[in-house]
Design a protein that fits this description.
Length: 195
């Protein structure tokens, strides 16, 4: 091969390699972008600082896929959260139930956390549930999500009793007889009786 032909061939191969690498980088970037879910909109916070009722639908919740009606407003207040914390752990942020892998003052488990994260568009970990502010956000989002679904399913307003039973027994907690005693304990802390 002549030297000048080799140089032209080498330059052609180098150019082809640059374009191939650029194409692969573009493909890799597009693939990685497809793995990252789009950010979820943050829920609006009412003037009282509580999350509004309605607007979230649980992923995989078969009870309803329709958005909450505009007039459905649910607020999870600090008094209710304090009652949950008092019954669960006496407000102990360091509490861990190793048998259930439940963390923090509200005893949040992995599935509960996943649902709360989905509602908020966050990626909190179980270890972060020892932070009372993050844990309160997760509990509020979870109860708002499933309280709204319960309201749509039943046509009734989610009371503190219903919310306590959701926290204790999951999305169908209000339907489970086993959650009644837990709700009674929450209502006793709140100074209320079950209806």
């Amino acid at each position: 091969m002549k030297p000048c032909t080799y140089r032209r061939l080498s330059a052609t191969v180098d150019t082809a390699l640059v374009f191939a690498v650029a194409a692969w980088v573009g493909i890799a970037a597009a693939f990685l972008a497809s793995l990252t879910p789009p950010p979820s909109p943050s829920p609006a916070v009412s003037a009282s600082g509580a999350f509004p009722r309605g607007g979230w639908v649980a992923a995989g919740d078969s009870s309803s896929t329709e958005p909450a009606p505009e007039n459905a407003r649910m607020e999870i207040d600090q008094t209710f959260l304090d009652a949950l914390a008092a019954v669960e752990t006496n407000g102990n942020d360091a509490a861990i139930n190793f048998a259930e892998d439940a963390h923090g003052r509200y005893q949040i488990r992995a599935g509960y956390l996943a649902d709360g994260n989905a509602a908020l568009g966050t990626r909190y970990t179980l270890a972060e549930m020892h932070d009372p502010d993050k844990a309160a956000r997760i509990v509020t989002a979870y109860l708002t999500r499933y309280g709204s679904a319960w309201e749509r399913r039943t046509g009734l307003t989610a009371t503190d009793e219903v919310l306590a039973r959701l926290h204790n027994g999951g999305p169908r907690g209000p339907d489970k007889a086993a959650t009644r005693g837990y709700a009674d304990r929450i209502l006793a802390v709140l100074g209320r009786n079950a209806r």
